[in-house]
Design goal:
Shape: globular
Distance between the termini: 17 Å
Number of strands: 12
């Protein structure tokens, strides 16, 4: 941390970005007073703080725009390229000296430091009226809290730097920087968000302001911070009994507190009561005859810019994702040709429900484990010979998965049938280094048109997640509360599958059964939305679901018939120490009294 702070001090109060005034050599750099005297440069400085917001559409290159390895490091998927950081996590080949670990830590602290400087200095602006100063301060406050939230969910108890930026002549050795407990971190984040939410009340966050910090986003991140603090990883986790701070205090509370779940549920309900349905609602689409279309609804919620469900989206950013999820399609036009290198595991494929809303291992699921039949997918115009496990699945399955023999979304260049077996147009033989290592390619969020078109918003948080957060927290402290079924069923109704407690499907009969139902729903509904990695860790189930054999189709089989044999593509590792990321070694070297996370 001392190294980080020193870097910030030596670089002045400005951080590098594309704006010319930030790229000037030191002798020609604007002074601190000049920077904050004019609204134009104030806004550039604020935009630079915004630049630390993660762009998770860039996960192929971890830490590009603060992206993380969340998808490939979970049991959802596998990137074909060995340089992806998730592949190192999956085999336990990472530690406190890994550069991506240091980058993620440092980038968020740079954002925090810049936000604190901005909050303190923006009053110097001579052509900013008081209302705009108040708004900009509040935006910076949300950003600072959000960056702490991102640090907390990876590293656990982190260092709270306080409100006042470190002066340039400070004695860094005398600062006494130390890690705060997880309860202190959560309390600080939520209190900051409360202050900012109140200050931003009434400020528009649509139109030209889309993508700015807002009261709804602040309230949503508050709720999610509280959900983390209530979860088993951070709430009475006795595995961390010896995880002690510099002053001898437990950094993770050792006594379970069920009221933390209530606090999280109350925060989620406060958001719902304030914004649903007048501001946000679950996105829905209908056919020309007025009938509801669950496939289009669950697909286009991630494609329609700033639709009724999107709480926050980046207006733009690094978007390697389109290339990653567009199949190789040998011989096809560039518009429909990518890599198909983001590949979905068999474990995730099997997690989707059948069309009657049941898990595939349910005897009443009507799941057929092998063979072929004629089946028309909801995006197709005709029936095709389809492997039976991929028939009669719920709409979200067809939103999420490109499988062997499926019609590609973009039909401007003909009806392209994606073939992912070894000799297919998107298989290993065709792509060489660009192919799906499990035989499945992620499809959710894939563009309908030219895969090179990056002129779209990048959704990061939507109402469905708030509903599922609320149901989860409510079930933990007040099992049997009718709201639990209400909100999980709203998700299922939109997905076009039977609701729990209906004639077609019985309701979970106990708190444990409901917990499992909620977790299954989260896994499917929030697939590819960067929640699974964090969910499995905060629930303390990652050792069970992230470790061991991971499966897919046999991509090396030389015949298409043999491709359909399920094989192990990797045996993964998840160790107890992996629940928390290590504090970067260079930070420990700079501050030897800093406590490292357990096991590192």
């Amino acid at each position: 941390m001392k190294k980080l702070l020193l870097t910030l001090i030596l670089s002045g109060f400005l951080l590098s970005c594309d704006d010319d005034y930030l790229d000037q050599v030191p002798d020609d750099r604007l002074t601190f007073e000049e920077t904050f005297a004019r609204r134009a440069t104030v806004e550039q400085y604020l935009a630079n703080i915004y630049s630390q917001i993660p762009s998770e559409f860039a996960q192929r290159y971890t830490t590009t725009e603060n992206s993380g390895p969340w998808t490939g490091a979970s049991d959802e998927a596998e990137y074909v390229w060995g340089f992806h950081m998730g592949n190192f996590l999956n085999i336990g080949d990472w530690n406190a000296t890994t550069q991506n670990v240091s980058n993620l830590w440092s980038n968020f602290y740079r954002g925090i430091r810049a936000a604190s400087t901005f909050i303190e200095a923006v009053d110097l602006c001579q052509d900013c009226d008081p209302a705009i100063i108040s708004q900009y301060k509040a935006e910076a406050r949300v950003l600072r809290a959000y960056y702490y939230y991102n640090l907390m969910r990876s590293f656990g108890p982190v260092i709270l730097l306080g409100e006042t930026p470190i002066p340039a002549d400070a004695d860094l050795d005398a600062l006494g920087l130390k890690r705060n407990s997880i309860d202190e971190v959560a309390a600080y984040i939520t209190s900051e968000l409360d202050i900012a939410a109140a200050a931003l009340e009434g400020v528009s966050f649509t139109g030209n302001n889309a993508g700015r910090m807002s009261t709804p986003f602040a309230m949503a991140i508050k709720e999610q911070t509280l959900l983390f603090a209530a979860s088993p990883l951070f709430n009475g986790n006795t595995d961390y009994a010896d995880f002690i701070g510099q002053d001898g205090e437990n950094l993770i509370p050792q006594n379970y507190d069920v009221n933390k779940w209530k606090t999280a549920a109350d925060a989620a309900k406060a958001f719902i009561d304030k914004y649903v349905p007048n501001t946000y609602s679950l996105y829905e689409e209908f056919n020309e005859d007025g009938s509801y279309n669950p496939y289009l609804s669950t697909r286009n919620v991630m494609l329609e810019d700033f639709n009724s469900e999107i709480i926050y989206a980046r207006p733009a950013g690094a978007n390697y994702f389109h290339y990653d999820v567009t199949p190789y399609h040998l011989g096809s036009a560039t518009e429909v040709r990518g890599a198909g290198g983001l590949s979905v595991t068999q474990e995730m494929v099997d997690a989707f429900f059948t069309s009657n809303g049941r898990s595939i291992d349910d005897p009443q699921a009507n799941y057929v484990a092998d063979g072929f039949s004629q089946f028309q997918a909801p995006y197709d115009f005709t029936t095709r010979t389809t492997y039976n496990p991929w028939t009669n699945r719920e709409p979200r399955f067809y939103v999420g998965i490109t499988y062997n023999g499926s019609l590609w979304l973009n039909r401007d260049f003909g009806n392209i049938i994606t073939k992912t077996w070894f000799g297919g147009n998107s298989g290993r033989q065709a792509g060489t280094n660009d192919y799906p290592p499990t035989g499945y390619i992620a499809r959710k969020k894939a563009p309908l048109g030219d895969r090179r078109n990056n002129n779209r918003s990048l959704p990061m948080l939507r109402l469905a997640e708030i509903y599922l957060d609320y149901a989860e927290a409510l079930n933990e402290y007040d099992p049997g509360n009718p709201d639990i079924l209400t909100y999980i069923n709203l998700i299922r109704e939109r997905a076009g599958i039977p609701e729990y407690g209906s004639v077609e499907l019985e309701a979970p009969a106990s708190q444990e059964a409901m917990r499992e139902a909620i977790r299954k729903e989260r896994r499917v509904e929030l697939f590819l939305e960067n929640t699974r990695y964090f969910d499995a860790r905060r629930w303390k189930i990652a050792e069970d679901v992230f470790a061991g054999e991971m499966h897919g189709m046999d991509i090396n089989a030389r015949t298409e018939e043999d491709f359909y044999n399920v094989t192990t593509f990797e045996t993964r590792v998840f160790r107890p120490q992996d629940y928390l990321w290590p504090i970067p070694q260079d930070e420990l070297n700079a501050n030897p009294t800093l406590v490292q996370n357990p096991g590192w």
